[in-house]
Inverse folding.
């Protein structure tokens, strides 16, 4: 079972390493947006020394690592399961010894691994060339940030999987995907860091899984606040969301009618 | 000829409004997507009320002009983003075989009516901003208010077309265009003073994106450019738009000539 999981993850890594042009194009676009966002947030800082608890170098690091991270956690655009539900191919997935939830999770972790060595590295290198970035003071921060990133990938995957599961009922999930894209942009800390929002909005946002996908690993990396509560929150969301995926999938599969032929 | 385009357009509009509830939802979501940008602007101005040396009302005027320009371009030619699909599937061959222009066919045959939601949203922001700022209205300024979003739409539309043309050479690299279309949208929605260094030079002046909203807004407000550009340049967005349109026409023609089909 574990061997199969790792084999699937490796396959996910290899599969994405074949899309070289697309990876380069995405890294380029993320980098251009890095410049836009970095200048914008530094202008918000203005003459002040900190804003929202970030100094200039912490803010720049938040932006540049964030631009790489968004490819790793994959905030947008995954509808593979939904397409397989529509086409009926999902029946083949259900017949395999590893259930679709775990198989897709393994593949997604492999994809994230590939993104970490390609799409994360490019914006980070460019950002470090043109801006002062923040180096964590504690050595442990690197390890904690890595763990947090893996948890962020799983949280992101699980919510994407839930969105895709709605295809069993809706068939066309475009509306749900659009709503999710909006949420992924504004609720995760991608558009504006969450500490910039008014207090009540921050409390509301942290009660959702969205900050766990993006804001949490970045805050841990730039050592803004304590890592422990952020990691605990992420771990809790991983458990809750994977259980939800499992339960919803069980109900969904019972609805499945495949037109034979 | 014109009636053929009209028929294509009518067929599109009919098919897209066939499912009313679905269409209404699409329209709403498309408005919401751009509303996020306004929320972001409000949040940033809450943290720093003098962002880039402008007041919130002035920044909203810039964001409104940029938002409307982008929404118009997105409505008219935003669907050329589907170009890679046309090329990969060989559908573009069909387009070229018909006795109509290739680009107008793509524009008319794929027009996404739901993007009207963004035009409405952009116009609303502009209307609110116009109520909040003090403008000494002159005939020239009224004309500029009408022309600026159109000129901006031509600039964005040209960028969309050039971006789509790139995929004639690099089929998988369509996302590069997003850096300049959606990246350009982000750049134009804020005062150019927010950005700095060579990056501001490239986006603001070399690509001419400062002419979409920032410079026209300065002309409407009667403010000199804090970055020291000559005053008459604030009125020259249409010239930049013409230059972009000519460039897009040239690149598009080169792309179509280069196109060799996927074969098979």
């Amino acid at each position: 079972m574990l061997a199969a999981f790792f084999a699937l993850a490796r396959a996910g890594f290899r599969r994405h390493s074949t899309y070289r042009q697309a990876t380069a194009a995405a890294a380029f676009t993320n980098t251009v947006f890095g410049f836009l966002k970095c200048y914008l947030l530094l202008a918000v800082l203005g003459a002040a020394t900190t804003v929202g608890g970030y100094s200039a170098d912490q803010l720049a690091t938040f932006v540049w690592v964030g631009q790489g991270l968004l490819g790793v956690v994959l905030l947008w655009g995954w509808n593979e399961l939904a397409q397989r539900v529509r086409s009926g191919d999902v029946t083949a997935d259900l017949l395999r010894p590893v259930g679709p939830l775990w198989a897709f999770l393994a593949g997604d972790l492999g994809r994230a691994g590939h993104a970490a060595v390609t799409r994360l590295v490019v914006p980070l290198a460019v950002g470090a060339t043109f801006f002062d970035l923040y180096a964590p003071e504690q050595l442990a921060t690197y390890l904690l940030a890595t763990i947090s990133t893996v948890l962020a990938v799983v949280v992101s995957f699980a919510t994407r999987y839930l969105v895709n599961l709605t295809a069993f009922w809706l068939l066309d999930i475009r509306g749900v995907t659009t709503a999710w894209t909006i949420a992924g942009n504004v609720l995760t800390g991608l558009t504006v860091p969450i500490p910039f929002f008014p207090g009540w909005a921050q409390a509301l946002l942290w009660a959702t899984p969205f900050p766990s996908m993006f804001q949490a690993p970045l805050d841990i990396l730039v050592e803004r606040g304590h890592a422990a509560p952020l990691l605990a929150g992420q771990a809790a969301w991983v458990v809750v969301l994977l259980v939800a995926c499992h339960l919803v999938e069980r109900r969904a599969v019972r609805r499945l009618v495949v037109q034979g032929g | 000829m014109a009636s053929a385009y009209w028929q294509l357009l009518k067929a599109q509009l009919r098919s897209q409004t066939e499912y009313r509830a679905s269409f209404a939802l699409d329209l709403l979501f498309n408005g919401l997507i751009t509303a996020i940008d306004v929320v972001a602007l409000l949040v940033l101005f809450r943290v720093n009320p003098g962002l880039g040396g402008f007041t919130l009302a002035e920044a909203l005027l810039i964001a409104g002009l940029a938002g409307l320009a982008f929404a118009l371009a997105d409505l008219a030619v935003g669907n050329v983003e589907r170009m890679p699909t046309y090329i990969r599937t060989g559908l573009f061959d069909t387009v070229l075989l018909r006795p109509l222009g290739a680009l107008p066919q793509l524009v008319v045959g794929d027009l996404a009516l739901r993007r009207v939601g963004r035009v409405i949203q952009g116009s609303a922001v502009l209307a609110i901003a116009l109520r909040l700022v003090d403008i000494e209205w002159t005939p020239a300024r009224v004309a500029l208010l009408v022309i600026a979003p159109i000129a901006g739409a031509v600039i964005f539309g040209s960028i969309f077309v050039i971006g789509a043309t790139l995929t004639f050479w690099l089929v998988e690299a369509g996302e590069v265009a997003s850096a300049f279309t959606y990246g350009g949208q982000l750049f134009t929605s804020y005062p150019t003073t927010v950005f700095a260094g060579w990056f501001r030079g490239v986006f603001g002046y070399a690509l001419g994106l400062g002419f979409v909203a920032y410079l026209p807004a300065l002309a409407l407000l009667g403010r000199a450019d804090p970055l020291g550009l000559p005053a008459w340049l604030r009125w020259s967005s249409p010239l930049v738009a013409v230059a972009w349109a000519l460039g897009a026409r040239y690149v598009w023609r080169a792309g179509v000539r280069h196109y060799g089909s996927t074969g098979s």
Chain B has a mean pLDDT of 88. Residues 2-258 of chain B form one domain.
